[in-house]
Amino acid sequence: MRKFKKPESVLVVIFCQTTNRCLMLQRQDDPYFWQSVTGSMEDNELPRETAIREVFEETGIDIIGQNLELIDAKYSVEFEIFPQFRHKYAPEVKLNKEHWFYLPVIKEITPMLTEHLAYQWLTIDEAANLTLSPNNSEAIGNIHSLIKSI
Predict the structure, then answer these.
(1) Fewer beta carbons within 10 Å, N or C terminal of the chain?
(2) Which residues are known binding-site members for Mg(2+)?
(3) What percent of the chain stands above pLDDT 70?
(4) Which residues belong to the annotated binding site?
């Protein structure tokens, strides 16, 4: 039996505190699509656990091992799944619930890409404009207020 993705995911915006730039990743399955770290929750997994796992899988950053502060925005959005990605979900699923997190880092790292074609460190405005995902763009845009609070 085919296993479909759970329609609940995380979005983790990684940004560098010293350069005020954020990390953007180019998808393998759609090279025109750039995004922050994102991934579906697994069964019995909490959003924070998913965020930690996905950051490691997609970038090689070990949040726990490096004692980094993963900030839970305590915010989630529900959005319509892009048509080109719907085949990964059960046929009746059209919406996904996404939990937002932020990961501040001190320096821009070179990620170990396993699920993406390329990466870029971009200014907040450049990154927000690059992504095709309105919610990813909004989350990136919120970094300005987040930076003032940390």
Answers:
(1) N
(2) 54, 58, 115
(3) 96
(4) 5, 27, 38, 54, 58, 79-82, 115, 133
